[in-house]
């Protein structure tokens, strides 16, 4: 997955086509956070958005930049270590299958 904490202006330009379905406001938000390094709070003020909405918008940005299917959701939860290992194993298998499908599309 793409590290979404920072990216260069060039990287952003190369990948911004993936964000074409987002509003101009959300595209500017992504640029401010990823390229300029603004915090979500400062970026929210800059684009006239609530900090709560910024969080959701950046999750959508992450999904689009990582080519995740539209039915994927971000999930973070505490669980027993054994269960976490099982979930990670399933996620790894899912990612392998997703990459295989992606490669078949480009053949």
Percent range of helical residues: 55-70%
Q: What is the chain-wise order of helices and strands?
A: HHHHH
Structural class: mainly alpha
Q: Looking at CATH, which topology of the largest domain would you report?
A: Arc Repressor Mutant, subunit A
Q: Uncertain runs with pLDDT below 50, 5 residues or more?
A: none
Shape: globular
Describe the overall structure:
With 107 residues, this protein is an all-alpha fold. The chain folds into two domains: 9-65, Arc Repressor Mutant, subunit A; 75-107. The chain is 62% helix and 0% strand. It has five helices and no strands. It is globular, with a radius of gyration of 16 Å. The two termini are 22 Å apart. The model has no long low-confidence stretch (mean pLDDT 89). GO terms for molecular function: DNA binding. InterPro entries: Fimbrial_Adhesin_Reg (IPR053721), RNA_pol_sigma_r3/r4-like (IPR013324), TrfB (IPR032428). Residues 7-89 form the TrfB transcriptional repressor protein domain. Keywords: DNA-binding, Plasmid, Transcription, Transcription regulation.
